Description:
By secondary structure, this protein is of the alpha/beta class. About 35% of the residues lie in helices and about 25% in strands.
Amino acid sequence: xxxxxxxxxxxxxxxxxxxxxxxxxxxxxxxxxxxxxxxxxxxxxxxxxxxxxxxxxxxxxxxxxxxxxxxxxxxxxxxxxxxxxxxxxxxxxxxxxxxxxxxxxxxxxxxxxxxxxxxxxxxxxxxxxxxxxxxxxxxxxxxxxxxxxxxxxxxxxxxxxxxxxxxxxxxxxxxxxxxxxxxxxxxxxxxxxxxxxxxxxxxxxxxxxxxxxxxxxxxxxxxxxxxxxxxxxxx
Length: 235
């Protein structure tokens, strides 16, 4: 479970994010939507411990990210919008390196690495250097690496950028499967039609403040309904 309790981030007296409060339940895919510069990335950086909130608390799996960062990160997966991968490693080497950071034993690390590489369709290139991967391959490897620790919570920033239709479908299927297994998923995205398809709830942020939370019943069924809601509340 992911909980944000009145979190905010200020720079020089100006609030980039202010008073965000919401939760993501086990097995739920919650989407955060907003115009460019609305505060989505700042929110994610506070959720992952990269930024210290000026006020409020982020609690993941029952632990405060600022007070117990190691405990939170050991049970959380994070997919950033811009991938950073060690290009002189192969996919297997990169996954093994991450498994060692989580202190997984070798048997578990190998089993999870092999399974995730197969699930994400990277078997044919697993022993190739990452520097030769396409953007889509890198994005899939990034997703796979976020799951090496079998997280109970997954935080994702713009996951579909640069993916081909096969990659998009694959990630959608994996997200649905993770939800069915009880993982709490937070997704920040500009893609309204994908949020409309995947999310059980969405929050809409503007100028750093949460201005609406909509249940699936309010936007599912009619094509473009979420776009209409988004434009209405942000205009």
